[in-house]
């Protein structure tokens, strides 16, 4: 019913005058306990002659059935529906949008019938008498013209109650249930009942937790993968192509971190540990994950889109300790280059994407081959000088990490992506994201390895702070961990980058634009303090010092700088800004590397020539 305009019973439409149908599919079920239809009158009805009454019917299984409620005067403000509210409705649950009443409707509607009209004839007679009768001196209150009933609209209020036993695992009771309890998700819905859940538990609200080891955790982030044309039990190989180095290098990655599960009858079931083969280091690098899908996996779920087998990858915290995903592709395999008299340097060259397009020996079951990304991990034939160096080092460390020299040479040989390694014996270094970690230089049994990546392989996550990726640190820890004593507690981390910040006042030569050359000077200071952030600018080193006098000399030698004054040098450590001006800055720890703050953070104050002249002309004796 449209309630945007007043409902006017007076008129020529006999259908509106005789009956009105209101309702919706969700009401008037067996669970309904009480209902009231409210009439909002704009003008109180005044009976002219016969006063109409309202009779109420219910639509049940497509047939109108009398409610047997006594007739109600049309002027009443509400009509209570209190009879036959438990009429059975034999119809499946309907979650579609409500539709208007039509000839196909079978339930969920109430019909209001009038046993007489509103007295239109008597109203017209009364109106003519009022218009033709001369006004008489008022003997009492003034009497206005006759009016008819005007209605703003109808509204219905109801309450429903139904008891549903969700705790019983009896399948017979489940099959004869009269109502369903559903969890609504962003992608679908799922019925909840102990008879259909593996753990026999039902919760009021959807749960986003999982069991990882002996601890029950709540998901911080989840990733869903839908697969079609799968025939469990079957193995599924998925390529996870990630943006290397995008994981937070300062995050402490939990172990284990990822939780794998599949959807069975709208319930997430854990993959067994033996059914997951992960070559990605828990999404720290690109690789293939092979899943052994069990036979009980289903694709007839409505919690997620129907017709697909669904996989969930969840983490309970540290969601930034995984790399950003570029692609997930099914039917993946890894191809390995086999040398057949090729150029010795061929393996070191990167094979562009889409180079491999078919098998050397055709297989009828394989329709198409796609190489979506370039090759990786190739090394050319070893040169003679490199061979002698490697052999000499091998004879010294014998593929075992004992001395500091052994640790460093083993890492540099196995990981060409690493430019510099520093090993600290009897040192415990465990940084965290907040900058307040553990650092002990007297920790017997602990060995700390700190690495700096090679710029050639670095993805420049932060050019000023060349972090080694979290995946690379994990690989180094596994590599060295298999070559050290069982009594060694190994730590492999990034260095602590300590920022150098400069404040100064500068006078440019006449004719040089202040804004442009202020920005140029900031970039020059950045290049001076962190030369590795620019092409052919060197590499970062542990330790080192920054002298204020050397910095002043560097700035004054610039062709657009006349002179500098009020130079201040500050050191910011672990996000804490230094307040003391220093003439000489050096790293506070053995694992520290001095870097520049971003260019805009260097405060450059330009000395204005006109103000300088006024101040010099002013006599000091003047007040």
List the keywords:
623 residues, alpha+beta, Jelly Rolls, 5 domains, 4-stranded antiparallel sheet, disordered N terminus
In terms of DSSP E residues, the strand content is 25-35%
Percent helix, as a range, is 10-25%
> Could you tell me the number of beta strands?
31
What is the CA–CA distance across the termini?
Answer: 87 Å
Number of separate structural domains: 5
Average predicted local confidence, pLDDT: 82
Structural class: alpha+beta
Shape: elongated
How large, in whole angstroms, is the Cα Rg? 41 Å
Q: State the major sheet.
A: 5 strands, antiparallel
- Summed up, the helix count is 9
Low-confidence stretches: 1-17
List the helices and strands and how they pair.
Layout: H1 14-18, E1 19-23, E2 32-43, E3 53-60, E4 63-66, E5 72-73, E6 78-81, E7 107-114, H2 120-132, E8 150-160, H3 171-175, E9 182-185, E10 188-191, E11 209-212, E12 215-218, E13 221-227, E14 234-242, E15 259-264, E16 267-270, E17 276-278, E18 287-293, E19 309-315, E20 325-330, H4 384-397, H5 404-414, E21 418-425, E22 428-430, E23 438-440, E24 446-453, H6 470-481, E25 489-493, E26 496-508, H7 514-529, E27 545-547, H8 548-556, E28 561-572, E29 584-586, E30 592-596, E31 603-606, H9 609-617
Parallel strand pairs: 24-25, 26-30, 26-31
Antiparallel strand pairs: 1-7, 2-6, 2-8, 3-4, 3-5, 3-7, 9-10, 11-12, 13-19, 14-18, 14-20, 15-16, 15-19, 17-18, 21-24, 22-23, 26-28, 27-29
Helix pairs in contact: 4-5
């Amino acid at each position: 019913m449209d309630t945007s305009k007043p409902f006017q019973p007076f008129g020529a439409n006999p259908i509106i005058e005789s009956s009105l149908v209101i309702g919706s599919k969700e009401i008037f079920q067996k669970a309904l306990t009480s209902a009231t239809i409210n009439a909002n009158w704009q003008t109180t009805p005044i009976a002219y002659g016969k006063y109409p009454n309202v009779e109420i019917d219910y639509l049940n299984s497509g047939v109108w059935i009398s409610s047997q409620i006594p007739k109600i005067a049309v002027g009443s403000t509400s009509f209570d529906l209190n009879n036959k509210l438990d009429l059975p409705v034999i119809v499946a649950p309907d979650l579609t949008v409500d539709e208007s009443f039509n000839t196909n409707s079978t339930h969920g509607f109430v019909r209001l019938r009038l046993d007489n009209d509103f007295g239109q004839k008597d109203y017209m007679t009364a109106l003519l008498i009022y218009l033709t009768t001369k006004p008489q001196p008022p003997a009492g209150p003034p009497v206005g013209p006759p009016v008819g009933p005007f209605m703003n609209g109808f509204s219905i209020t109801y309450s429903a109650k139904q008891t549903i036993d969700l705790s019983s695992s009896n399948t017979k009771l489940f099959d004869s249930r009269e109502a369903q309890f559903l969890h609504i998700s962003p992608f679908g819905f799922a019925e909840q009942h102990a008879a259909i859940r593996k753990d026999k538990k039902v919760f009021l609200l959807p749960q986003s937790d999982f069991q990882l080891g002996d601890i029950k955790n709540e998901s911080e982030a989840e990733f869903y993968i839908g697969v079609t044309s799968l025939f469990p039990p079957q193995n599924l190989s998925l390529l996870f192509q990630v943006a290397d180095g995008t994981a937070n290098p300062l995050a402490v990655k939990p172990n284990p971190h990822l939780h794998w599960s599949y959807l069975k009858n709208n319930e997430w079931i854990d993959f067994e540990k033996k059914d997951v083969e992960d070559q990605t280091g828990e999404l720290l690098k690109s690789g293939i994950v092979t899943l052994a899908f069990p036979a009980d996996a289903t694709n007839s779920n409505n919690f997620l889109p129907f017709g697909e087998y669904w996989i969930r990858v969840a983490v309970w915290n540290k969601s930034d300790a995984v790399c950003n995903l570029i692609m997930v592709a099914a039917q993946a395999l890894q191809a390995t280059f086999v040398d057949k008299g090729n150029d010795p340097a061929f393996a070191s060259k990167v094979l562009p994407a889409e180079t491999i397009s078919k098998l050397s020996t055709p297989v009828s079951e394989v329709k198409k081959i796609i190489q979506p990304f370039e090759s990786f991990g190739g090394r050319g034939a070893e040169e003679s000088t490199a061979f002698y160096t490697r052999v000499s080092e091998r004879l010294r460390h014998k593929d075992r990490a004992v001395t500091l020299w052994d640790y460093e040479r083993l890492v540099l040989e196995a990981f060409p992506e690493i430019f510099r390694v520093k090993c600290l014996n009897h040192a415990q270094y465990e940084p965290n994201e907040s900058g307040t970690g553990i650092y002990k230089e007297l920790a017997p049994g602990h060995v700390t390895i700190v690495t700096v990546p090679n710029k050639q392989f670095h993805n420049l996550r932060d050019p000023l702070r060349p972090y080694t990726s979290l995946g690379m640190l994990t690989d180094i820890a596994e590599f060295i961990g298999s070559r050290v004593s069982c009594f060694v507690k190994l730590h492999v981390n990034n260095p602590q980058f300590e920022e150098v910040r400069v404040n100064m006042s500068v006078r440019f030569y006449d004719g040089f634009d202040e804004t442009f050359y202020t920005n140029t000077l900031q970039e020059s200071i950045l290049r001076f303090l962190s030369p590795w952030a620019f092409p052919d600018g060197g590499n970062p080193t542990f330790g080192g010092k920054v002298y204020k006098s050397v910095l002043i000399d560097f700035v004054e030698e610039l062709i657009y700088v006349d002179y500098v004054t009020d130079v201040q040098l500050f050191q910011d450590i672990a996000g804490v800004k230094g307040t003391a001006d220093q003439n000489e800055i050096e790293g506070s720890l053995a694992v520290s590397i001095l870097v520049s703050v971003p260019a805009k953070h260097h405060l450059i104050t330009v000395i204005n020539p006109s103000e300088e002249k006024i101040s010099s002309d002013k006599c000091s004796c003047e007040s």
